[in-house]
Design a protein that fits this description.
Strand order of the largest sheet: 1-2
Largest sheet: 2 strands, parallel
Shape: globular
Distance between the termini: 57 Å
Radius of gyration: 21 Å
Number of domains: 1
Number of helices: 18
Structural class: mainly alpha
Strand content: under 5%
Helix content: 55-70%
Order of helices and strands: HHHHHHHHHHHHHEHHHEHEEH
Oligomer: single chain
């Protein structure tokens, strides 16, 4: 068993310290008081963690082997799609491990997740740097993207050059999310970090090398169809879904951007992080990451306890919600700029009409 986590440990995850919050009226808990309410849930069961990790990776391995060896292509396609969804769940277990929410004392888990990271194009050093930055800057205007989709105001948009506008639109374009396998994982997570600082991000080179070696071996001994069903298709599915989940959790219609003087990671968790309402099946495949407002409030809560937290704490039960329905997906991509006058997200078309 681990121990309940404190706000100081959230600071280790890239969150700046904050002054004491003012008193408030009523029984509604906010700020550190709300964080303290979540701390009893920030305790893992090691046996439960291993059950979740073990079943996920075992099912994923069986699905991938089946996708490579099944005699008929419909079965290979079905197993490949299943493996892609399991890769999303496997990534959430890795994500929680990197947050020290599960199995952080296990040497076996250390090797398992390092191997997974090398094959799934999520090198630990690049991931940790970009993800800690993300947790420390959610709900802020940021023209520079460090492992996250940039977000600027309508005024910044009007002042931007045509080149800057093109780059910004490109970084947030649906095709960048759809082809996240190449644009986000292979390029941003691995190649870009490796080229920027080879000495520090040597594990990015190792991830690219390991991924390339796996593809080469499968191609030599099994042919392109094995590569397609075992690596390319499931990685494409997992990367596209994972990239969109990350995008939609912090770029949605009712998202609120907080001014620097008022920003706290408590407010950012509740006002700038969405709750993605999913059916039970997709909730399982996505490792409860849809409870994103709770994750941002306390990163040490294991993914399998997030629904328990929401059920137990009334203040977390009325989050801003999105879904995977087409209308919500369109709204997320339309929510492109923050308008300070209207205090809401607007589209490029709306921004062009603002004076």
């Amino acid at each position: 068993m681990g121990q309940a986590q404190t706000s100081g440990q959230n600071h280790e995850e890239g969150v700046p310290p904050e002054p004491d919050l003012p008193e408030h009226s009523g029984d509604i808990r906010i700020g550190r008081e709300l964080l303290r309410a979540t701390e009893p849930f920030a305790v893992e069961s090691v046996a439960e963690s291993w059950w979740q990790v073990g079943t996920t990776f075992s099912l994923m391995l069986v699905a991938l082997i089946g996708a490579g060896m099944a005699p008929a292509w419909p079965w290979r396609l079905l197993l490949s799609l299943f493996a892609g969804l399991l890769m999303v769940r496997a990534f959430i277990t890795y994500h929680d491990y990197m947050h020290r929410a599960i199995l952080h004392k296990s040497r076996v888990a250390w090797w398992l997740f390092r191997l997974y990271a090398a094959l799934a194009l999520t090198p630990p050093r690049s991931w940790r740097k970009s993800h800690n930055y993300h947790h420390g800057h959610v709900g802020m205007v940021s023209a520079a993207s460090v492992g996250a989709f940039p977000l600027i105001t309508t005024q910044m948009w009007r002042d931007a050059s045509p080149r800057e506008r093109f780059i910004y639109r490109f970084q947030r374009h649906p095709l960048v999310v759809l082809f996240g396998y190449i644009t986000i994982f292979a390029y941003s997570m691995c190649l870009e970090s490796l080229l920027r600082d080879p000495a520090r991000h040597w594990d990015s080179g190792l991830a690219l090398l390991g991924h390339g070696v796996l593809i080469t071996l499968l191609w030599v001994f099994g042919g392109f169809d094995v590569v397609f069903f075992v690596v390319l298709l499931p990685m494409f599915i997992a990367s596209a879904l994972g990239s969109y989940l990350f995008f939609a959790q912090h770029s949605f219609k009712r998202m609120h951007i907080i001014s620097p003087d008022a920003w706290t990671f408590y407010r950012a968790a509740l006002e700038s992080s969405s709750y993605m309402r999913l059916n039970k099946i997709m909730q399982w495949f996505t490792g409860n990451i849809g409870y994103h407002h709770i994750h941002h409030l306390n990163v040490r809560i294991p993914f399998y306890r997030l629904p328990e937290v929401m059920a137990a704490i009334p203040e977390l039960q009325s989050p801003v919600t999105t879904t995977l329905w087409p209308g919500d997906i369109i709204n997320c991509f339309k929510s492109s700029l923050w308008d300070e006058d209207q205090q809401r997200m607007v589209s490029y078309r709306e921004a062009s009409k603002l004076v």
